[in-house]
Amino acid sequence: MTALVKCVVWDLDQTLLDGVYTESAVPPPPDPLLAGVLADLGSRGILHAIASKNPPSAAAHAARATGCAFAAAECGWGRKSEAVTRIAASLGLGLDALAFVDDDPYERAEVELALPQVLVLSPEDAADAGGWPEFRPPVVTAEARRRAELYAQRRRRQDSEREFAGPKEDFRRWAGTRISLGYAGPADLPRLHELAVRTHQLNSGEPPGSGAAAPGTGQWFLAALAAPGQDEITVRLRDRFGDDGLVGGCVTARDPAGAVTVRLLVMSCRAMGRGVVDALLAWLVRSAAREGARQLRVPCVISDRNVPLRLALTGAGFRADGFRADGGGTAGSTATFSREVTGPLPALPEGTSAPGEAGPGEAGPGAA
């Protein structure tokens, strides 16, 4: 399956800008063709960033001239591969989710050699890339179209958390974190499909296959919604910095043997470190216990990207016999994480609302 590009990292001089910034008496305008590509890809939920050997003022000029809210900018005179690596880390993206565009063959070769996971393009390539499968997500939702805004919120949140004097739980309380779980309806299915396609670090399943009813596709979610004995759960997230909308979900199934199985669990990487995965797993345990189940199971397809999910499962008391949560296993094989639900039940994180539970706990002063 072709990997989707989630962020395009642009050079500026003679690439996104029609000229050289430091050699122009008046800052050069954007290249009209590439400015159109910028807008088109942005409408598909693809982020944009800058890696330029220029002063930071060049990035600010490019943002004004194009009207693009760049998710990150690295301006300096070091290696472009190092700048691209920092951009990927700051956005929480894998290198295989990035494309890099530069007019200089030397810069392209340097990035291609150092970061073979990155899709490296010339400006001429970028002008045609809108028709390539790497740039054509199968579904684009409202959340995707505001992805640049959501990453700007993420950056403000991270800046505030770095300045906050106190533990992470106190920061979430100060930020007024609200996690809302509910049952999915037909209107939620495109977003769940999108998450299944785009998320990797917090995804228990395989990428969708070619079949219309393959796990994670729109048809699969539609069939699961109508199937008896199954539930589709959505997770929404907001705080004082903004409303992230629908950030995750799962599909559960009950069996006569007294177990509940999570057929698929997906979560946006923007939810990492904000208590959302903990909230979903705690509620799944509590919900299974209310239904009289003895065990909750989460089959997880092994990949080198979903270690964060496997660590979260282990931290929530799930165990997969003979398997290390932080690595190991054969890629593509499945480890089933299980937890008994007959003993003491986990508490929901503060500020969480969910079916069958009392209202959310108080999130403290400043709650959104």
Lay out the secondary structure:
Elements: E1 7-10, H1 32-43, E2 47-52, H2 56-66, E3 72-75, H3 80-91, E4 98-101, H4 105-114, E5 119-121, H5 123-128, H6 142-145, H7 147-163, H8 168-174, E6 178-183, H9 189-198, H10 218-226, E7 230-239, E8 242-255, E9 259-267, H11 276-290, E10 295-301, H12 307-315, E11 334-340, E12 352-353
Parallel strand pairs: 1-2, 1-4, 2-3, 4-5, 6-12, 9-10
Antiparallel strand pairs: 6-7, 7-8, 8-9, 10-11
Question: Can you give keywords for this protein?
Answer:
alpha/beta, 368 residues, 2 domains, five-stranded parallel β-sheet, Rossmann fold, 12 strands, elongated, seven-stranded mixed β-sheet
Structure description:
The protein is of the alpha/beta class and 368 residues long. It has 2 domains: 7-135, HAD superfamily/HAD-like (Rossmann fold, 3-Layer(aba) Sandwich), CATH 3.40.50.1000; 166-353, Aminopeptidase (3-Layer(aba) Sandwich). Helix content is 33%, strand content 21%. The protein is built from 12 helices and 12 strands. It has helices at 32-43, 56-66, 80-91, 105-114, 123-128, 142-145, 147-163, 168-174, 189-198, 218-226, 276-290, 307-315, and strands at 7-10, 47-52, 72-75, 98-101, 119-121, 178-183, 230-239, 242-255, 259-267, 295-301, 334-340, 352-353. The strands form 2 sheets. It has a 7-stranded mixed β-sheet with strand order 11-10-9-8-7-6-12. The protein has a 5-stranded parallel β-sheet with strand order 3-2-1-4-5, with helices on both faces. Strand 4, helix 4 and strand 5 form a beta-alpha-beta unit. The longest helix is centred in the middle third of the chain and has 17 residues, at 147-163. It is elongated and about 75 Å long. Residues 207-212 and 361-368 have low confidence and may be disordered.
